[in-house]
Amino acid sequence: MRERTTSNLRAQAANRGPRAAERIYEATLELLTEHGYQGLTVEAVAERSGVNKTTIYRWWPSKAPLLRSALLHSRVLDVEIPDTGTLRGDLIALAGQMMRLVGDQRTGAVARAMLSDGAQGELATVARDFFADRLERERPLFARAVARGELAATADPVLLIDLIAGAVWMRVLLRQSPAGEGFVESVVDVVLAGLRA
Amino acid sequence: MRERTTSNLRAQAANRGPRAAERIYEATLELLTEHGYQGLTVEAVAERSGVNKTTIYRWWPSKAPLLRSALLHSRVLDVEIPDTGTLRGDLIALAGQMMRLVGDQRTGAVARAMLSDGAQGELATVARDFFADRLERERPLFARAVARGELAATADPVLLIDLIAGAVWMRVLLRQSPAGEGFVESVVDVVLAGLRA
Prior knowledge:
The structure is a homodimer. By secondary structure, chain A is mainly α. The first copy, chain A, folds into two domains: 2-73, Tetracycline Repressor, domain 2; 79-196, Orthogonal Bundle (Tetracycline Repressor, domain 2), CATH 1.10.357.10. Helices cover 74% and strands 0% of the residues of chain A. Chains A and B meet through helix 7, helix 8, helix 9 and helix 10 of A and helix 7, helix 8, helix 9 and helix 10 of B.
């Protein structure tokens, strides 16, 4: 993860953003959770991050692309796409990271804030991009499982992720009930057994 | 559903609330989605519903119990607990209702608004009560499946619902991607096959 993050930041610095990218991203996510998307402004991000407003505007013309970059590239929301050698191991590791992200006070608040704008509007588009990006990053995990003969080539990885991630969101964010020892393993085992049946 | 709803409203009228209960509930849910929980006030509910403020305060001392009643008893959010004769049929019918609720613009907005207050605070408690109430109402469906020999008595109905409802929320509200023909059936079939494996 560290390596990916570092190379990400390097890419930011080189191509897509200022060197203070991570500070800007974290300020953006904080302000989103404190004031909602309506209340998020580039001015406030500049003030919170201590980066000049014109510098921010040089890279992001408005708050929507800024938030998009923050969601896609902030270290805070980063997940490591696991490669444990088995599909079960990979999915348990991935679901464990999801648990931590939605269960953590700071990143859980980001997750909830992403939903607040409904199905229309700029924030909804940004949220959709976030989940599409995650899925693209997860695809190699499934390709490896197919190559190892652990998953049928016809299996639908989106359905599989929706079941696993959905159960995590439902238990932690919606039901707000303790997941309990072995929750992630049970979720993965039911889904894998179901797909293979 | 009609019978349950009618008897609910009758109970409201007789014991717990004014006859205008449903009007008050709908005004409460509308205002929640328009202004968020912070912006929800009993005064605005009175104005929107056309019911006297003192009448509302007679039944609900503050906005938290009012919203709780609206979520638990509003016709808008009601689901019919199906009894089709098979567990698969029941779960497909239930998941289909979840799809409609989160996919509908008005009720989907309520679903998102319920998440906006985080894990602390009054709204979070009310949201938790909502999901706990749903689960209690769904339990007989699982009891019938166990009695018919379709589900092991040791199976965890909460895990099952988290997987099914979670996949619906993830696909419709988070990923905002078309569920497609047969999505609900695929979700239920994977989960049932997985539980029985």
